[in-house]
Amino acid sequence: MPDTYLNPPSSAFMDKLAAIVGDKGMVTDPQAVAFHSTDWRGISVGRAAAVVKPATVEEVSAIVKLCHENNVKVVPQGGITGLMVAGVPVRDGDEVVVSMARMNRILDVNPGAYTMTVEAGVVLQTIQETAISHDRYFPISLGAQGSCMIGGNLSTNAGGATVLHYGNTRNMVLGLEVVLPDGRVWNGLRALKKDNTGYDLKDLFVGAEGTLGIITKAVIKIFPKAKDVATGWIAIPNPQAAFDLLAEARMASGDTVTSCELIHGIGLEGVLKYVPGLQRPLADKHEWQLLMEWSSTRPAAADGSGSMAERMEGFLAEAFERGQALDATIAQSEAQAKNMWAIREGHAEASRRDVNPSCSFDISVAVHHIPDFIERCNAACVAAVPGIRPKPMGHMGDGNLHYSFGAPDHVTTRADFAPMVEKLDRIVHDMVTDIAGSISAEHGIGSVKLLELEHNRSPVELDIMRAIKKALDPKGIMNPGKVIRVDANEPVVQGSTIR
């Protein structure tokens, strides 16, 4: 980290900080401080001046007000599962990490109104399980759901596997409570589906990655729980077949396709190699596969007639006749369905365990562009970096590809791979921009893509973003070095897409 950033807070400031949160809220153990200063992959390591865990919104407000008065930087933090290094300090010793881990209460569940009110530190899986206990469903589902927190999900506008049917996290939010950069509290905890009174302020903070304030509470939507689910694993000849199958499946299912995931054979083999306990869904290996799920809130008949599984079986029989499916299986038990989903969600863990370097791009394009984009982008990347192993996969239903590349066999270190990744950056992101896609579909910008955002977004868009940042955070204390630079000369400490 650059020494030019070094400006640690005074001892008097630290004493006041400790007085706000007390012994339970002040993290002093060196290992714990290091944990809160390191990203999930263990690659980006910062150095926090302090780590605090407030227990109430009043404590969060007092912390931020103190930091604002003393020009001390603030890093809001959830479960530290993000991949863009938005939730850890990137400067050198002058940032206070505000972890929301102790604000972990579910404040209200209203099944009849289909709402839940939660604090920002509630773990996503806890929200899912609470909804299920009330015969309801919260649709945001991520590989890190056992440790990520809803405040981080909101701050990054997390996606997941059900965006096709339910939308991003932004679509789940009815109201927010936010501590602003000067310590004031905006209480927008309204459970309203219609509120047309001026600017929709909550949308400023969802997806802002903690650069405009700290989300402390939220009113979120919950949905009817699915009672009839069919999960299928389908071998397909190419990505065009995936697009065609999805379009036809939406009609055949009565538009109840809740997930559609494109999976590449190289990625599948990596998951089976590095993540224990998983079973191959199909006996033969295939280059392209599709994980598709249909869901209904109506229970299936006792004899299975008219069920999602029966309807999917009929749909796949026709797909075989058209040559769109090469092989397929439908999960016959919850265990089989969980195995399929564990393979899909195991890609990040497999990449982390693989000793060979790899990189991944979180991009989105219009769904109809996916087949041609994959063909052209693969060809361009292989030509630019001979030996590179493309393995595009992701959320076929919403156009979000996690475009991963394994390093050539002769490249064994991240340092040697870095110049190649720079070439891939330009090819992938420029091709995405050329067809009006996005360089970040669901992971956010953080510090990793800050310069890439400046390269790909128009001057008008960047000016609007900077104006919002200046208006809400004129001192620039809130999560500096993430998402947007107000000053073009501000130094950048970038993370990396290399694993």
The beta-strand count equals 18
C-alpha end-to-end distance:
19 Å
CATH class of the largest domain: Alpha Beta
Q: Roughly what fraction of the amino acids lie in strands?
A: 15-25%
Which CATH-level-2 architecture of the largest domain? Answer: 2-Layer Sandwich
Q: What would you call the shape?
A: globular
Strand order of the largest sheet: 15-12-14-13-17-18-16
Task: Give me the CATH fold name of the largest domain.
Answer: Alpha-Beta Plaits
Instruction: Give a quick account of the main beta sheet: strands, pairing sense, barrel closure.
Output: 7 strands, antiparallel
Compute the number of structural domains: 4
Structural class: alpha+beta
From the alpha-carbon coordinates, what is the Rg to the nearest angstrom? 23 Å
Mean pLDDT value: 93
User: Into which percent range does the helicity of residues fall?
Assistant: 25-40%
Please characterize this protein's 3D structure.
With 499 residues, this protein is α+β, with helices and mostly antiparallel strands. The protein has 4 domains: 3-99, 2-Layer Sandwich (Uridine Diphospho-n-acetylenolpyruvylglucosamine Reductase, domain 2); 106-224, Uridine Diphospho-n-acetylenolpyruvylglucosamine Reductase, domain 3 (2-Layer Sandwich); 228-347, Alpha-Beta Plaits (2-Layer Sandwich); 355-434, Alpha-Beta Plaits. The chain is built from 16 helices and 18 strands. It has helices spanning 11-25, 30-35, 57-69, 124-133, 150-156, 163-166, 202-205, 239-252, 265-274, 308-322, 334-345, 347-353, 370-384, 414-434, 450-456, 459-472, and strands at 26-27, 50-52, 73-77, 95-99, 106-110, 115-119, 136-137, 173-179, 185-188, 214-221, 223-224, 228-236, 257-264, 288-296, 327-330, 358-364, 389-395, 400-406. The strands form 4 sheets. It has a 7-stranded antiparallel beta sheet, with helices on both faces. A hairpin with a 4-residue loop joins β17 and β18 (400-406). α8 (239-252) packs antiparallel against α13 (370-384) and α9 packs across α12. The longest helix has 21 residues, at 414-434. It starts with 10 loop residues before the first helix and ends in a 27-residue tail after the last helix. The mean pLDDT is 93.
